[in-house]
């Protein structure tokens, strides 16, 4: 007999609600806790998971496995070629091990919810009590409703309600205790049941990184929950007080760089918020009091919950449909050459190119720059935002469906709480405002490193044409003013048809 916890995007022991419940149940029943993790290459394909993300998850899994060994808890792992077989595989293993209870944390995407629903049914028939709990969000979806009893689709009132709800239910931020150590020998006994040495799943060939890319990503993004907590500590000690004033400046190392950990579940947003509030001396335990930097950081983390609530309530956003269906009929350009130049960071707009090259270099990009390049993609190039959304998932190490879809919807004005379509970012003004000294541009676009002063924002328009030509930096691929007019027209026509 045993109790099983099924790990997914919750690759940590600390403050993990599903794992904590599984641990308590095992202790109460006096039986061992067994953990499992299954992957399917088909899931990677269906979700456009980036190579960087696969690598990060598997590195984090290695750390998790070692930590579980310290508790004498075995970790069963498997690669299931056909993802349709995942549920029957899990059920088969639970039966084989004599599990009476299984726990997991809920994922809100449609495929995952369906999978869990199937498993609930199968487990019920097999006499196994399967419990899936909310863990990835602080406030469970469908909890917050407007005065009219509807789901919020605008962030600000939703945020006020989110804060109020957490203040009224402080247990939502409470730490979930880690499981206790298994009775001795449990790991050995079950590991021999698993067969072979039960290694960390290997990376499918089409998701393998070159060794050069792997070591580069390793240095930017050390994996696992210990690293996540250290990174959080450093951020709380040093950068959070100034976060409100600096978070939009991509040239400064001012944000937490924790998104990869929230996405892999090596850190819970609940833990991060609880710790930030505790470190905020003037907050008196409130999320919206005390230091402005901390308040702002928590309100950014709230966006993560907001987009997951949106996804859970309007699952059609998972199906390549715009949240606002009246925007479904915009006539997009499908210009491969433009798409290629955007991906390579060769648009001739320095701030856009710096951001796209940051993605190529780090598999990550600053939030302000994600907005700039997404707006440029949809509004200046009139490319279908879904192609950009997919490219982000295929290349970001922190790829998260809800946040990515939400960010693209916002920038392309097709999503929940969007920028109105007629508010179009001017890349040059964005560049001057948020990268005033051009540090970020010079860091990521070597061709422009020797260009001094303001010309770095627009070398061909500001008297640095010769240097830009010499270094091979391209001319702007579109003219912003004209592109803006065209976008306004297309959006208006699309709305007319929609
Ligand atoms: P910090 O500034 O330190 O913020 C703390 C945390 O708050 C982040 O780690 C993240 O979990 C959350 N957060 C901050 N801003 C947002 C936001 N706008 N939406 C949702 N959550 C937010 N974030 C992802 O995690 N995965 C994605 O795939 C993703 N795609 C995006 C695509 C677009 C077009 C845009 C505009 C934004 C996207 N974001 C995504 C949100 C945001 O850009 C990143 O979370 C942020 O840049 C991560 O850096 P950080 O950890 O240093 O953030």
Automatic annotation (TrEMBL):
Positions of FAD binding: 243, 255-259, 297, 300-307, 398-400
Among the GO molecular function terms of this UniProt record, one is: DNA binding
Residues the UniProt record annotates as site (Electron transfer via tryptophanyl radical) = 332, 385, 408
**What are the GO BP annotations of this UniProt entry?**
circadian regulation of gene expression; entrainment of circadian clock by photoperiod; nucleobase-containing compound metabolic process; response to stress
**Keyword annotations of the record:** Chromophore, FAD, Flavoprotein
In the UniProt record, which is one GO cellular component term? nucleus
Q: Where is this region: Disordered?
A: 191-211
The Photolyase/cryptochrome alpha/beta domain sits at 1-138
Cofactor(s) for this UniProt protein: FAD; (6R)-5,10-methylene-5,6,7,8-tetrahydrofolate
**Of which family is this protein a member?**
Belongs to the DNA photolyase class-1 family.
Q: Which domain of life is it from?
A: Eukaryota
Record-given protein name: Photolyase/cryptochrome alpha/beta domain-containing protein
